[in-house]
Design goal:
Blueprint (H helix, E strand, L loop, with lengths): L2 H17 L21 H16 L6 H16 L4 H9 L5 H10 L6 H11 L2 H4 L5 H13 L8 H6 L14 H14 L11 H20 L3 H11 L8 H12 L28 H15 L18 H8 L8
Helix pairs in contact: 1-3, 1-14, 2-3, 2-5, 2-14, 4-6, 5-8, 8-10, 10-12, 11-12, 11-13, 12-13, 12-14
Length: about 325
């Protein structure tokens, strides 16, 4: 599959997201005491993070860059230009998800000083430092602190050692839950693909060896959402897997995308399960299609050449230099 085809998957996915942006709006339940974060803040934060990534890997003036910028501004307005994070801080002082969502905006230069000051105050407490979390979630919080200009409260390397991936487990123990955990560990280590060198050498070598068969297994079972996340991991490694692996995977995944650009989380699969429909069951996998495509085409040599993909995406290291403005926090 040629670079232009991979870009086409990303373009179609982002076009679907743009056409369905209204589904990402925050409603009155976003600040409700018992509101469902998974149907309000989580989708909005994922939208913001993917748009940040697309902006980093495309040049100003590129239609993808402009669409991502437009969607990011839309998402920021949903937060009251950052003011709602302060409300969340007041309602749930020790919840981590507000900072994790805010960090995506902060990495793009969209900041709210009042919220950052309040979050930094809480982050200095003993209560924040000893909050019990899964190790991969702790990595998310640490990366979010760094992106928001808050000193990291723990050592990321130590947190990594306690994750499934950090333990370099027997490859046959890979399953769906482990797959989603390992992808996010890599995303936090690399600042969502921006810094491939953030993956330790031993972990990178392990992934480069075992990610291809894991990806093949997910594709065979039509786990489209997880497959896109694994492709995003592949594009986040210091050294890419063999080009044929990526090309074959993209060729398969392109067939899962419908004419509107949407991709379901799963297909019918070998066990005959029916794929669910509607925004809730395809928004994340469609976002991941755009995310993986942006990271892939942003890496020279992914398809066996050193040429950049059509459309002029910048290599990630160039994007890193551009986005590291203000306050010194990597974008």
């Amino acid at each position: 599959m040629r670079a232009l085809d991979v870009r086409g998957v990303g373009e179609a996915a982002l076009a679907w997201v743009s056409a369905n942006r209204g589904e990402f709006r925050l409603d009155e339940g976003a600040l409700a005491a018992y509101g469902d974060v998974n149907t309000s803040w989580k989708p909005l934060g994922e939208l913001a993070q993917v748009c940040v990534c697309v902006r980093r890997t495309t040049a100003p003036g590129d239609p993808l860059h402009e669409t991502a910028s437009d969607l990011l501004e839309f998402a920021w307005r949903q937060t009251g230009n950052g003011a709602l994070f302060g409300e969340l801080q007041r309602l749930e002082p020790f919840a981590t998800y507000p900072l994790e969502v805010y960090a995506a905006f902060a990495s793009a230069g969209l900041r709210h000083p009042g919220y950052e000051s309040a979050a930094a105050t809480v982050a200095r407490t003993r209560g924040w430092r000893v909050t019990e979390q899964e190790p991969n979630r702790r990595l998310s919080v640490l990366n979010s602190e760094r992106r928001s200009g808050i000193p990291e409260h723990a050592d990321p390397a130590q947190s990594l050692r306690h994750t499934w991936l950090g333990g370099l487990p027997e490859p046959w123990t890979f399953e769906r839950a482990a797959g989603y955990t390992l992808t996010h560990v890599v995303f936090h280590l690399t600042d969502w693909g921006l810094v491939p060198q953030g993956v330790p050498r031993s972990v990178a070598a392990y992934l480069r060896h075992w990610l291809p068969p894991w990806l093949d297994t997910c594709l065979e079972d039509e786990q489209w959402d997880l497959s896109f996340e694994l492709l995003a991991v592949a594009a986040s490694l210091p050294r890419l897997p063999e080009p044929a692996v990526l090309q074959d995977a993209w060729s398969t995944l392109a067939t899962a995308q419908d004419a509107t650009g949407a991709v379901p989380e799963v297909g019918p699969g070998r066990d005959g399960r029916a794929a669910a429909g509607g925004f809730r069951y395809c928004y994340h996998s469609t976002l991941m299609a755009a995310f993986a495509a942006a990271l892939t085409t942003g890496r020279p040599g992914w398809n066996g050449t050193e040429d950049e993909a059509p459309g002029g995406p910048r290599p990630l290291e160039h994007a890193a230099r551009q986005d590291r403005g203000g306050r010194g926090a990597p974008g």
